[in-house]
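ARCHIVE CARD
CATEGORY: sequence design from structure
SOURCE FIELD: tokenized fold
FIELD CONTENT:
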């Protein structure tokens, strides 16, 4: 504990240095016996400051590779979608991809294979990427939720909230030059908005500083071929972003 003579000496020294106008007294250490009865924390409990790294205990933030993230996803039971899945679908592609494509969630074929964007919608995605001279193998492809929603329904809010930290970490690890959000769920999740896909497309948004383009999901294009033209306009913006 700082005694009175030490405080007085500090005071006089600071008066000398500061010209007598200001003084900064050291904070006296309060020992357990000095603490008032209603002090907090109660005697005997530690008052250690919180860790400077608030994410130190978060296993998702502790991952260092995409494989680490996939290893966490494989046994995940953070939401009810785990109950009906056959396989988790974490995502696939190179760790240094310049583009990340984000869809909504796995469908039947993805659930069976553990791979994103396979089947007819996946084939169309491969063609869309090829149209801007981007081999699928050079793109990291994943979804907002990593387990199949039953009957291909939209992922619910609580499911997205439980799963989206995996997606955020994947984007952090890949550090892409651009993100292509395909479909309303991906766009609204990443941009934290309820605006319609139509209102969000045909412009460059930002996700944590990374340019983000919104366009239609390939499955929607299969149902409505009229959306192919606007999708082409959107992916040409992606091409320009990657060429910058
Ligand atoms: S959807 Fe995501 S949060 Fe839910 S169980 Fe699957 S991996 Fe976990």
């Amino acid at each position: 504990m700082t005694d009175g003579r030490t405080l007085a000496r500090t005071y006089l020294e600071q008066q000398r240095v500061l010209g007598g106008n200001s003084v900064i007294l050291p904070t006296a250490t309060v020992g357990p016996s000095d603490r008032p009865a209603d002090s907090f924390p109660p005697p005997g409990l530690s008052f250690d400051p919180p860790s400077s790294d608030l994410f130190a205990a978060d296993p998702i933030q502790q991952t260092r590779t995409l494989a680490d993230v996939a290893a966490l996803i494989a046994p995940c039971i953070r939401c009810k979608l785990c109950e009906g899945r056959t396989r988790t679908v974490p995502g696939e592609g190179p760790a240094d991809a310049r583009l990340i494509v984000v869809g909504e969630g796995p469908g039947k074929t993805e659930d069976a294979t553990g791979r994103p964007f396979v089947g007819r919608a996946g084939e169309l995605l491969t063609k869309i990427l090829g149209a801007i001279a981007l081999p699928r193998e050079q793109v990291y492809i994943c979804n907002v939720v990593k387990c199949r929603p039953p009957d291909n329904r939209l992922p619910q809010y609580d499911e997205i909230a439980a799963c989206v930290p995996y997606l955020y970490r994947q984007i952090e690890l890949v550090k892409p030059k651009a993100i292509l959000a395909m479909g309303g769920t991906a766009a609204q999740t990443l941009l934290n908005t309820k605006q319609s896909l139509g209102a969000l497309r045909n412009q460059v948004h930002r996700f944590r500083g990374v340019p983000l383009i919104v366009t239609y999901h390939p499955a929607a294009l299969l149902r409505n071929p009229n959306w192919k033209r606007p999708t082409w306009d959107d992916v040409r913006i992606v091409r320009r972003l990657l060429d910058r």
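CARD ANNOTATION: The chain has one domain: 62-243. Residues 160 and 196 are 17 Å apart (CA to CA).
SHELF: design records, drawer C
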